[in-house]
Specification:
By secondary structure, chain A is mainly beta. Chain A contains 13 helices and 55 strands. Helices cover 37% and strands 13% of the residues of chain B. In chain B, the strands form seven sheets. A six-stranded antiparallel β-sheet of chain B has the order 9-8-13-12-11-10, with no helix packed on it. The chains are: A mainly beta (1030), B alpha+beta (593). Strand 32 of chain A pairs antiparallel with strand 1 of chain B.
C-alpha cells in the first residue's frame, strides 16, 4: 500500500520534467528495479545529461534516446540516485538501493499517507530503530528527548510502568492530557515496540482534528512492520543487562548522623535513656537493602518475506525485567503476524494480529517504598545472632510496645513493622493478555479511487492478586487478606474510508471520507477474603469479606472527511472535518465537530530559489484546527447512588455525585505556523510556533464541601498554551569511514489560564498539597504558604536562644509579616510544576564499523514538591523516622545558635562568654530550624520550603556498537550483524534533593503533577546485545 | 465526490445510535425512585456515613492508613481537645495537632468531619424533599433528626459555643442547608444563634412526625436502637436546650422523657457489657450501629475509635485485635475516679497493661512548655517504693524529692511534692506541686514517656476488640442534663438527686452520695454536676463542650504532649478551623487564630 502510494506520487513528480529528445542518438531501454525486493520501480525519473528525460512505466521499464557519452541519472523518491554512462549500451537495467533517509519522506498519518515535503502541519516522524536505543518496554519512554515540544517523564522505575507524555504543554487538567495512540490506522490497539516500523507524532490540530475525539493531547501514529521482500529476511535480536536504582542526591542518615541529630533534641539524661549507646553498633542501609541490582533481558525474532502473493511478517518477543526495588518485576511475551495478499488485481486484503501476555509484580504495600526511604538505621530487619550480627532470618515486629523477639531490644521506626519480613510472604501481582486483530480490505475500483475498510477486534483480560499473609504485620489485623480481581474488555470497531486521488495537469487532489463505529464491553469482578491459614491462596479457603463487580457497555461513532489540494507540488492546502459522538456526555452534548485547515508553501521549489545551493529545501506551513477531549470516566453526567454500603446489615444507598446533564466536550483550538528547511543538503531545521486554547475544560471542579460534595465534573474555563519549538539535525562531518551527526530539539511552552467561572480561583488539593487554578497563572501553580526561613528568638524564662521556622503572612493591606505558626500563614502561589522548556540532544559518531551514539534530555524551570521531606526533613516532627542527610551538596545548614553582630539595639544586646557585648540577630542564615522533638507547629506541612527546582539534564543513553563487516557476514550467510553495549541514564545533573527529578506529569488521586513522594526512581542500566539479520 | 461526502455525512447523522448507557454497579436517582423502598435505602445510607470509609477526593480507604471514619474523627476532635485524654507522643496522624489546638485546615480530620456532616445534611434534605408527609412519617422524622444532628455537630465543632455567641452576637456559626433550594445559593456562615434555631426547628419537626407515625395506622417497625426515634429526637433537643441555656425547656423535656424511661435507667447495669452491645442495652437511646461484617471493620479494624484507646494484641481480652492504643486516661481523670475505686465506670473501662507486681510505683508529673517548644513534656520516675507513711521518695535530675499523700477539701487523697525548688523551668510559676503515683507498668516511649492506661469503653462488640456501636444518646445523659438544668435553675436538691442516681447505679457507696449538707468539699452544685458528667461521659465527646459552654476554662496542665496551660473559654481556637477546601470554594470567612 505504502510503496504503491510512493510510486503514484513519483509519477506525478516526474510529469513535471520536460521531455526532450535529440537526434544522433540511439534507443536505450531497460528496467529499473528495487534492489531490496526486485519489484519494479514505477515512475523513476531517468535524466539524460544532455537534456531531457523520461519516467519508468508501471513495470519499471523505460525507453529513451541517448548518445554514447550521455550520462543517465536514475532517481526516485525513496531510493539513492544511480548514475550510469551509456557507453554504447542499448539495454541498461538498474537496480536502485532504497535510501533510508529518503524513506522517511513519506509519512504515515494514520488515515492517510503523505509526502513529507508536502506536509502542511507539524509532524515528526521517526524510524522504529531510532527509538529502540533505551532498554525499556515502553514506547513513551523511548520517545524521551527525541521530539521537540514533547515532554516525557518517567514517573516511576516500576518495571512495566509507562511514561507520562505531554505534547505542546498541558491544556487538559482533569481529563486525560496524554496523546492518542493510533496503531495501523485505528485508534487504540496494542503493539510491541520491536515491531514498530515508523512512529509519527502529530503535534498540531490541523493534523489531529481528523481524529477528533481524544486527540487534544496530540496523536502518536504507530505503523508496524510488514513483509515485502522477495528475499526472506530473518532478524534476531538479543540483549541483556543490569539495572541499578538512581538515588541521586538523596541519602538517608546513617546511624552516626541520625544519632547526632536525635541528640540535639533531648537533654543528655533523657537522650541516653531513649537512645542508648548500643544503637551506635548498628547501621543498616535500608535504601540499599530495598533497592538492589535489577536486570533486563529482551529477545526478539522476526521473519519477513513473501510467499507466492502473500507478504508476511511474523515476530516473537520476550521481555523480562526485574526491578531495582524488591519484589518488582515485569515480563512480557508478544507475537505478531502481519499478512497481506491480493484477492484480485484491484482488491487487497491484510490481516494484522498482535497478541501479548504480560506479568507484573509490585511491592505488596505502598509502605514498602516509604519504609525503604525512612526506616531507622539502627533497626536491623534480621534476627541477630549471639554476637549481635545479623542473620538472614527476618524479625517479626508487631509494635513498639513489645520488644524484638531476638534480642529484647526496641524497634524504633514509627508505626513499627518490618517491611522486609512482610515482603518475604506478601505480594501483589497480576497478569494480562491482549489480542488485537485487524482485518483490512483495500479496493481500487479505479486508479483514482481507493476504498478501505479496517475492522478491528480488541480483547484483553487482566487478573490481579494481592496476598497478605496472616504471619505478617499487615495481615495480623484480619488474619490474612487475599484479593482476587479480574477484568475483561472486548470491543470491535470498523473504520471505512473512501480515498480519492487525481491529478489534473499541475493540480493534485486528494480526498477521503469515512465513518467509524465501535462498541466496547467491560466487565470486572473482585473478591476479598480474610481469615485463613498461612499459605492459602484460594478465595474458597477464606472468609469472603467483600466483593465488587461491574459490567459496562460503550459505543462510539464518527464521520470524517478530508480534502487536500496541491498545485505544482509547491502549494498545498488541506481541510478536514470530523463529527464524533461520545456516550460520556449528557444527551444534548454528545456530538462534537472538529474541523481543521492547513496550508504549506514549498518555497524552495520556486524559481527564485533555484539559483542557490545553500537552502535546498524550504517550506512554510500553517494550520488551524479544533480537537476534542472526552477522556474522563464514564457516567459522570449522571447522579448515581452506590448500593455497596450497608447499615444494620441492610442495603443502604449513598449518593456518589450530583448530576450534570450539561457535561460536554472539552475543545482545543490550535493555531500553528512552522518552517522546515534543509541547508546545504545537510542541516534539517524545523521551527514551529503554536498557540493552543483549550476551552470548556473538563474539570473535576472543586465544590464547596458544605454542599456534601467536594467536586463535580463540569466544563469550565480556558487554558492557553503558547510555544516555540526548534529542532535541528545534521552531520558535522561526513566521510566514508567517519561520520558525526548531531541533533538538538527544544520546546518552550508557556501555559496560562485565560478564564474560569466568575473568574474565581479553584484550589485543587490532594494529600494536603495544593495547586491553584487562577486566571493568568499556570495550570500547575503550587499554592501553599511561603517559607520565610529560620528566625532566632530568645526566651528569657529559660535564657535560651532558639531557631524557629517562619512563614509569610500576607495582610489585608498587602504588607507581609512573619508568623511562626503554620496555621496562621497565608497560602499563595509559589511556583509552577510546568517546565519553562525541555528538549533533547543527540550525537552519533561513526568510525568505520563502530558507532557511538548518545541521547540526552533536559527539562528546565519546573518546580517539584518533595513531599518525602514532610517526613524526612521534618526537624523533629517525627523522631522515629530516618531523616535526609544534609550532606547532599545543596548547602543545607541546621540552626545551632544565634548569629551576632557588633551593632544593634538594646533588645538584642547579649553578653558573650568573654564578657564582650554583642547584638544577636533575629535573622539566621540557617536553612533548617533547631530540631524539636515531636513538634506540631506545622514546620513540616506543605510550604514552599519543600518546593525545589526540578530542572535536570539526563544522559539518557550511550550506545557503542560495532557492525560486523560485510566480508565476514557473507561467510556466515548473514546480511547484517551488530553488537553493542548500551548504558541508560548514566548521568543526571540536578539540584533536586530526592532520588530522581523525573516526576510524573499525570496527576492522580493522591498526586499533583510535579509531586514527588517516596518515588520509585528510574534505574541506570547497562545492557549488551546483538542484532543479526539473515 | 461531493455527493458521496454529503450523502455519507447525512446518512450517518440521521442514523443516530442509542448512546445512553448506565453503570451496572450503581443506580441513578431516577432508577432508584422507581423502587418503593428507596427512601429506606437512602436514609440508611445516611446512617452508614458515620461508620464507613468514604473516599474524599478519590482517596481510597487504604490511604492514608484507612483512618477516615467519621466517628473516630468526631471522638478525637472532642475528647482530645479536653482534659480527659493524653496522647502518646507524635504521629503522622493529624489528631495530634487537634489535641494541641494546632490543627491544620488541610488535614483529614478537619475536612472529612466537615464534609461528612454536610453529606449527612444533604442526604437528609434530599429525603425530606422526596418523602411526602403522611407516606412514611417515621422516615421523614428520622431525616429531620439527622439534619439537626449534622448541623449540631458542625456548629459545636466549627464555631464558638452558643454562650459565647450570646455575648458576641456577630459570632459566626456554620453554613446552613435546610431545604434543597439552599444548594443553589452562595454559602454563607449564619450566626451561631441562627444555626441553633434551625436545629431546634428541625428537632421539633422530627418530634412532630415521629408522633404522627405513632398515631398512624401502620406505625414504623424501625424500632431498633440503631435508628433515630421519638426519644432520640427529644433527648437531642434536651441537649441542645442545655447548650442554649434554655434550662426550663431542657428540664421539661427531661422530665417528660424520664417519666417514661425504662426502669433499668435508674438501676445499675452491666457496665463492662455495655460497649459490647450498646444496641441491646436499655441505657441506649440511639447508637450508630456497626456490624462485624461491615467493610470498615473487616478491612481496617484499626481505624475504629476503639483501636485508638486500646490494643488487644497482648491482652487478649477479646480477639487479640491490634489497636493503635495511643490515647490514654489523663491523670486528673484517674484521680477523680480514684476517690472511689469501686466505681464501675472506672473498673469496667480502665486497664493498665502489665503493671508491675513487685509493688513498685512510678511518679509522673508534667513539665511546663518552653516558650519556643510547643509541647510540655513529662517526667516519669520508675521503680519507686512506697514508704511506710504512704509517701514516695524519688530522684529527678539528680535531686531527691518526696511525694506526700495530701488530702483535699473533700477528704480525697492526691500526691504533692512539698520540696521547694521542684521546678521545671526558670519561671517560678511553673512549680509543680501535684504529682501522680501509680503502679509502675508499661510505658510507651515515643517522643516522650507515657504510662499506658487503656480504655475499653469502645471495645468488644461481637467479641472484637476493635468493634463498637457507640451510643450517641443514652439515658445517663438525660439524667445529668436534668441535673444540670436544675442546678442552673437553682433547684439544687433535685440536681443532686439525679447525680446520686448516676452514682448509685455506678456502684458507689452510700457515703459517696451528695446532699446539701454533705458536699464532699464541693462548694457549688454545678461543680458537682460537671465532675459527674466528666466521669459518666468520659471519652464520649461531652467534656470539651461541657466546660466551654459553661463559661469555664480548660485546665490542660496535665501530663501529656500538648501545650501546657489553660485555655480560656473565649479562646478563638475553641472553634476548629474550617477546611481550606471550603474556604477556597465558598469563600466564607475562616475562624480566627
Amino acid at each position: 500500500m505504502k510503496k504503491t502510494f510512493i510510486r503514484v506520487i513519483s509519477v506525478a513528480a516526474m510529469l513535471l520534467l520536460s521531455l526532450t529528445a535529440f537526434a544522433q542518438k540511439h534507443m536505450v531501454s531497460g528496467k529499473v528495479i528495487d534492489a531490496s525486493n526486485g519489484d519494479p520501480v514505477i515512475g523513476a525519473g531517468v535524466l539524460i545529461s544532455s537534456g531531457g528525460g523520461v519516467v519508468t512505466d508501471y513495470d519499471g521499464n523505460y525507453t529513451l534516446e541517448a548518445a554514447d557519452d550521455d550520462v543517465l541519472t536514475f532517481s526516485s523518491i525513496g531510493f539513492e540516485s544511480v548514475t550510469m554512462k551509456v557507453d554504447g549500451r542499448r539495454v541498461i537495467d538498474v537496480s536502485m538501493q532504497p535510501d533510508s533517509q529518503l524513506l522517511e519522506e513519506v509519512v504515515v498519518l494514520g488515515y492517510t499517507t503523505q509526502k513529507k515535503a508536502e506536509l502542511s502541519s507539524s509532524v515528526v516522524t521517526m524510524d522504529g530503530e531510532k527509538l529502540r536505543d533505551v532498554a525499556t518496554q515502553d514506547v513513551g519512554n523511548m520517545l524521551q528527548g527525541k521530539v521537540a515540544g514533547v515532554v516525557v517523564m518517567n514517573s516511576s522505575g516500576q518495571p512495566g510502568a509507562n511514561a507520562d507524555i505531554r505534547i505542546r504543554g498541558t491544556g487538559s487538567i482533569t481529563a486525560g492530557a496524554g496523546p492518542l495512540y493510533v496503531v495501523d490506522g485505528v485508534a487504540g490497539g496494542s503493539f510491541n515496540p520491536n515491531d514498530i516500523e515508523t512512529i509519527t507524532v502529530l503535534k498540531d490540530a490541523s493534523a489531529t482534528a481528523l481524529y477528533g475525539a481524544a486527540a487534544s493531547g496530540g496523536v502518536i501514529v504507530v505503523t508496524t512492520k510488514g513483509g515485502n521482500a522477495d528475499k526472506t529476511m530473518v532478524e534476531f535480536k538479543a540483549s541483556g543487562g543490569i539495572k541499578k536504582a538512581l538515588t541521586g542526591r538523596f541519602h538517608a542518615m546513617t546511624t552516626p548522623e541520625m544519632y547526632d541529630f536525635e541528640s540535639q533534641m533531648f537533654s543528655p539524661v533523657v537522650f541516653k535513656d531513649k537512645y542508648p549507646e548500643y544503637l551506635l553498633d548498628y547501621d543498616f542501609d535500608w535504601v540499599n537493602n530495598c533497592f538492589k541490582l535489577g536486570n533486563v533481558q529482551n529477545y526478539f525474532a522476526s521473519v519477513a518475506g513473501k510467499s507466492g502473493k502473500v507478504n508476511y511478517y511474523v515476530s516473537m518477543d520476550h521481555y523480562n525485567e526485574k526491578g531495582t526495588l524488591i519484589n518488582t518485576n515485569y515480563k512480557r511475551n508478544a507475537a505478531r503476524i502481519n499478512l497481506s495478499a491480493p484477492i484480485t488485481d484491484r482488491l487487497n486484503m491484510s490481516l494484522r494480529i498482535n497478541y501479548q501476555k504480560s506479568y507484573d509484580q509490585g511491592t505488596s504495600s505502598w509502605r514498602t517504598l516509604e519504609y525503604a526511604y525512612y526506616a531507622m538505621p539502627w533497626d536491623i530487619p534480621y534476627y541477630l545472632d549471639e554476637e549481635g550480627n545479623p542473620t538472614s532470618e527476618y524479625v517479626y515486629i508487631t509494635n513498639d510496645k513489645t520488644p524484638r523477639p531476638d534480642n529484647g531490644l526496641k524497634w524504633y521506626t514509627q508505626n513499627p513493622s518490618n517491611i522486609l519480613h512482610s515482603e518475604q510472604y506478601n505480594y501483589a501481582k497480576g497478569h494480562g493478555e491482549s489480542l488485537t486483530g485487524d482485518f483490512q480490505l483495500v479496493w481500487n475500483p479505479t486508479d483514482w479511487l481507493t476504498i478501505t475498510s479496517i475492522n478491528r477486534y480488541d480483547s484483553s483480560t487482566s487478573y490481579y492478586e494481592t496476598y497478605v499473609d496472616p504471619r505478617t504485620f499487615d495481615g495480623s489485623g484480619t488474619n490474612g487478606e487475599l484479593d482476587n480481581s479480574n477484568g475483561e474488555w472486548n470491543g470491535w470497531g470498523t473504520t471505512n474510508l473512501v480515498k480519492y486521488h487525481k491529478t489534473f495537469g499541475q493540480h493534485d487532489i486528494n480526498a477521503i471520507a469515512g465513518w467509524e463505529y465501535g462498541e466496547g464491553y467491560s466487565r470486572s469482578m473482585g473478591v476479598t477474603g480474610i481469615n485463613f491459614p498461612a499459605g492459602q491462596r484460594s478465595i474458597s479457603n477464606t472468609q469472603v469479606n467483600s466483593g465488587t463487580g461491574s459490567d459496562y457497555h460503550s459505543r462510539t461513532w464518527a464521520v470524517l472527511g478530508q480534502a487536500q489540494y496541491s498545485y505544482q507540488g509547491k502549494y498545498v492546502a488541506t481541510a478536514s472535518i470530523r463529527y464524533d459522538e461520545s456516550y460520556k456526555f449528557g444527551p444534548y452534548n454528545r456530538g462534537g465537530w472538529f474541523p481543521g485547515v492547513s496550508a504549506a508553501w514549498i518555497i524552495s521549489k520556486e524559481n527564485f530559489m533555484q539559483n542557490q545551493d545553500k537552502i535546498t529545501f524550504l517550506k512554510l506551513r500553517g494550520g488551524y484546527g479544533k480537537t476534542g477531549n472526552d477522556s474522563i470516566p464514564a457516567f459522570r453526567y449522571q447522579d448515581t447512588f452506590s448500593l455497596s454500603a450497608k447499615y444494620n446489615d441492610a442495603a443502604a444507598a449513598v449518593l456518589q455525585r450530583q448530576a450534570n446533564f450539561n457535561l460536554g466536550w472539552e475543545e482545543a483550538y490550535m493555531a500553528s505556523l512552522g518552517v522546515d528547511a534543509t541547508i546545504r543538503d545537510n542541516w534539517n531545521i524545523t521551527i514551529d510556533l503554536y498557540n493552543t486554547i483549550n476551552s470548556r475544560i473538563l474539570l473535576e471542579a472543586p465544590q464547596a464541601p458544605s454542599s456534601g460534595f467536594f467536586a463535580k465534573f463540569d466544563n469550565v474555563g480556558k487554558v492557553q498554551n503558547r510555544g516555540v519549538e526548534f529542532a535541528a539535525d545534521g552531520a558535522i562531518m561526513r566521510r566514508s569511514d567517519f561520520e558525526w551527526t548531531v541533533g538538538l530539539n527544544v520546546g518552550f511552552n508557556k501555559n496560562r489560564i485565560l478564564e474560569l467561572p466568575d473568574g474565581q480561583d479553584m484550589v485543587m488539593s490532594k494529600s494536603e498539597v495544593s495547586q491553584i487554578l487562577r486566571v493568568g497563572e499556570d495550570v500547575y501553580s503550587w499554592y501553599m504558604p511561603k517559607w520565610a526561613g529560620v528566625r532566632t528568638v530568645y526566651d528569657e524564662d529559660f535564657d535560651e536562644f532558639s531557631g524557629i521556622p517562619q512563614w509569610e503572612k500576607v495582610n489585608e493591606d498587602g504588607t507581609i509579616t512573619y508568623v511562626d505558626k503554620y496555621n496562621q500563614a497565608t497560602f499563595q502561589i509559589v511556583g509552577s510544576a510546568s517546565p519553562w522548556f525541555s528538549g533533547g540532544l543527540n550525537s552519533g559518531l561513526r568510525y568505520k564499523n563502530f558507532t557511538l551514539s548518545m541521547t540526552g534530555s533536559f527539562v528546565v524551570g519546573n518546580k517539584i514538591y518533595n513531599k518525602t521531606r514532610e517526613a524526612m526533613d521534618a526537624d523533629g516532627a517525627y523522631t522515629n523516622l530516618n531523616q535526609m542527610s544534609h550532606k547532599n551538596g545543596l548547602g543545607w545548614v541546621r540552626w545551632t545558635g544565634p548569629e551576632f553582630s557588633s551593632v544593634g539595639d538594646d533588645d538584642h544586646e547579649y553578653e558573650m562568654e568573654d564578657g564582650s557585648i554583642m547584638y544577636w540577630l533575629e535573622t539566621s542564615s540557617a536553612t533548617h530550624p533547631q530540631p524539636v522533638s515531636g513538634r506540631s507547629d506545622g514546620v513540616n506541612k506543605a510550604s514552599s520550603r519543600y518546593l525545589e527546582d526540578g530542572s535536570f539534564f539526563r544522559l539518557r543513553n550511550v550506545t557503542l556498537s560495532y557492525n560486523i563487516p560485510a566480508n565476514i557476514l557473507s561467510k556466515a550467510r548473514m546480511s547484517g550483524a551488530r553488537v553493542y553495549v548500551a548504558a541508560d541514564n548514566v548521568l543526571t545533573l540536578s539540584r533536586f534533593s530526592g532520588m530522581d527529578p523525573e516526576v510524573g506529569l499525570d496527576a492522580d488521586t493522591y498526586h499533583h503533577a510535579g509531586l514527588y513522594s517516596s518515588n520509585y526512581p528510574v534505574p541506570m542500566s547497562v545492557v549488551i546485545g546483538f542484532d543479526v539479520n539473515f | 465526490m461531493k455527493k458521496i461526502l454529503a450523502i455519507s455525512f447525512a446518512a450517518l447523522l440521521l442514523a443516530s445510535c442509542n448512546m445512553d448507557f448506565y453503570p451496572s454497579d450503581a443506580m441513578t436517582s431516577s432508577q432508584l425512585a422507581d423502587n418503593p423502598a428507596s427512601a429506606v435505602y437512602t436514609t440508611d445510607g445516611i446512617y452508614s456515613l458515620f461508620k464507613d470509609f468514604l473516599a474524599y477526593k478519590g482517596e481510597s480507604e487504604d490511604y492514608p492508613n484507612g483512618r477516615n471514619q467519621y466517628l473516630r474523627h468526631y471522638f478525637q476532635l472532642t475528647e482530645l481537645r479536653g482534659d480527659n485524654v493524653t496522647v502518646s507522643g507524635t504521629t503522622s496522624d493529624p489528631f495530634v495537632r487537634a489535641y494541641d489546638y494546632q490543627e491544620v485546615p488541610t488535614e483529614e480530620n478537619i475536612y472529612y468531619t466537615w464534609w461528612l456532616a454536610y453529606k449527612v445534611v444533604y442526604g437528609a434534605n434530599s429525603n425530606i424533599d422526596a418523602i411526602a408527609p403522611g407516606s412514611d412519617d417515621h422516615l421523614l422524622a428520622e431525616n429531620y433528626f439527622l439534619r439537626a444532628f449534622g448541623h449540631f455537630h458542625l456548629v459545636t465543632l466549627f464555631a464558638m459555643p452558643y454562650v459565647y455567641w450570646k455575648d458576641h452576637p456577630e459570632a459566626l456559626g456554620v453554613v446552613e442547608h435546610r431545604g434543597m433550594d439552599t444548594y443553589s445559593e452562595t454559602p454563607v456562615r449564619k450566626t451561631v444563634g441562627e444555626i441553633y434555631d434551625g436545629i431546634v426547628l428541625d428537632l421539633k419537626e422530627a418530634i412532630k412526625f415521629f408522633e404522627a407515625d405513632a398515631r398512624s395506622e401502620k406505625p414504623s417497625t424501625r424500632t431498633d436502637r440503631g435508628y433515630a426515634s421519638l426519644t432520640a429526637a427529644k433527648a437531642l433537643l434536651a441537649r441542645v436546650y442545655l447548650y442554649m441555656e434554655m434550662n426550663q425547656e431542657c428540664l421539661d423535656i427531661c422530665d417528660e422523657l424520664l417519666a417514661n424511661a425504662p426502669t433499668a435507667v435508674t438501676d445499675t447495669y452491666d457496665y463492662e457489657k455495655f460497649p459490647t452491645a450498646t444496641y441491646d442495652s436499655n441505657e441506649t437511646i440511639w447508637c450508630i450501629r456497626a456490624s462485624v461484617t461491615d467493610k470498615f471493620f473487616t478491612t481496617h479494624p484499626t481505624s475504629s475509635i476503639s483501636s485508638m484507646y486500646y490494643d488487644d494484641k497482648d491482652l487478649k481480652r477479646w480477639d487479640g485485635g491490634t489497636g493503635w492504643g495511643e490515647h490514654y486516661w489523663a491523670d486528673e481523670l484517674i484521680d477523680l475516679f480514684q476517690r472511689y475505686p469501686e466505681d464501675k465506670r472506672f473498673a469496667a473501662y480502665f486497664l493498665q497493661p502489665a503493671p508491675t507486681n513487685d509493688g513498685k510505683v512510678l511518679v509522673s508529673f508534667p513539665i511546663k512548655t518552653k516558650a519556643t517548644n510547643p509541647h510540655c513534656s513529662s517526667g516519669i520516675v520508675h521503680g519507686c517504693t512506697v514508704n511506710a507513711d504512704g509517701s514516695v521518695d524519688f530522684k529527678y535530675k539528680n535531686k531527691n524529692y518526696t511525694a506526700t499523700p495530701t488530702l483535699d477539701a473533700g477528704g480525697y487523697t492526691h500526691y504533692e511534692v512539698n520540696t521547694a525548688g521542684f521546678v521545671s523551668g526558670a519561671d517560678g510559676s511553673s512549680v509543680q506541686k501535684r504529682v501522680y503515683v501509680r503502679p509502675d507498668g508499661s510505658v510507651r516511649q515515643n517522643a516522650g514517656d507515657y504510662v499506658i492506661y487503656f480504655n475499653t469503653k469502645f471495645a468488644g462488640q461481637d467479641g472484637k476488640s476493635n468493634l463498637t456501636s457507640p451510643a450517641m444518646l443514652r439515658w445517663g445523659e438525660v439524667v445529668l442534663n436534668r441535673a444540670e438544668a436544675n442546678a442552673k435553675l437553682g433547684n439544687e436538691g433535685p440536681a443532686l438527686n439525679d447525680v446520686n442516681t448516676i452514682r448509685r447505679r455506678a456502684g458507689l457507696p452510700a457515703d459517696a452520695m451528695f446532699d446539701a449538707t454533705h458536699m464532699h468539699g464541693y462548694t457549688s452544685v454545678m461543680d458537682v454536676v460537671l465532675d459527674e458528667r466528666r466521669m459518666e461521659f468520659c471519652f464520649e465527646g461531652h467534656r470539651y463542650f461541657d466546660v466551654y459552654r459553661n463559661r469555664r476554662d480548660m485546665d490542660r496542665r496535665f501530663v501529656g504532649f500538648h501545650e501546657f496551660g489553660i485555655i480560656k473559654w473565649t479562646d478563638p481556637r475553641i472553634a476548629l478551623l474550617i477546611p481550606l477546601d471550603e474556604i477556597n470554594t465558598s469563600h466564607i470567612p475562616q475562624n480566627d487564630r
